[in-house]
Amino acid sequence: MLQFIPVKTRKFLPPRDSLEDLLSSLPKLKEGDVIFITSKVLAITQGRCVETALVNKDKLIAKEADRIIKKPVIAAGSKIYLTIKDATLIPSAGIDESNGRGYYILWPKDTNAYLKKIRSRLVKKNKLKKLGVVATDSHTVPMRWGTIGTSIGFYGLEPLRDYRSTKDLFGRRLKYTQSNIVDALCAMAVLLMGEGREGTPLLIARDLNMVKFTNKNRYKSFIIDPKKDIYKELLKPFKK
Predict the structure, then answer these.
(1) What's 172's DSSP letter?
(2) Rounded to an integer, what distance in angstroms lies between the CA atom of residue 2 and that of residue 136?
(3) 1-47+108-222: which CATH number, 1.10.260.40, 3.40.50.300, 3.40.50.2300, 3.30.1330.100?
(4) pTM for this prediction
(5) Residue 209, CB half-sphere, CA atoms under 13 Å: how many?
(6) Cβ atoms within 10 A of the Cβ of 40, count?
């Protein structure tokens, strides 16, 4: 039976904290587990933190964003920049102050490579062959209130289930449908890990029969060329 197991840890403190301590918080892992780790705690273990008093946030956002709409919007009394970072539509390049202790916490650097390193350690320690590791964050969806979990990197699993060339209930052959497994799982993982004081930046998903595991980097297969994206007209205002 499918299980989602949040893992409580000690506080991980900016500007830098221990990756070893984070990974040692995990219990014994099983074959076929998928580990979800919040982007914030990953960034802290990399030292991706900037003291708020020492930097202009607007300039920091512009520097960190891959693409940005330079005119900010005002939401709930705050100035927000709409940005794209690591192929993800995210406010303010993912820079976060919550639980920051006087620091801006940036997104992790080279996330997929970092997750590959983490996965290698966990595979060796737990003597596994099939293991997935996913970095999560929360973002907002246009025309919806509230945040939802999304992946910003992963390693060890296939992100998509391909229905193309299969038939629907009435025998019609499907041409386009691919199921986004990794983000669907992230939505549940982030919901269960929480957004506030829960102190559970790790989650284990177990007995995921729909997941296929791999030793290859499958991130590029997950990302759409902007020229082929059905939302390409909406993405045009974003500039490098």
Answers:
(1) P
(2) 19
(3) 3.30.1330.100
(4) 0.94
(5) 2
(6) 24
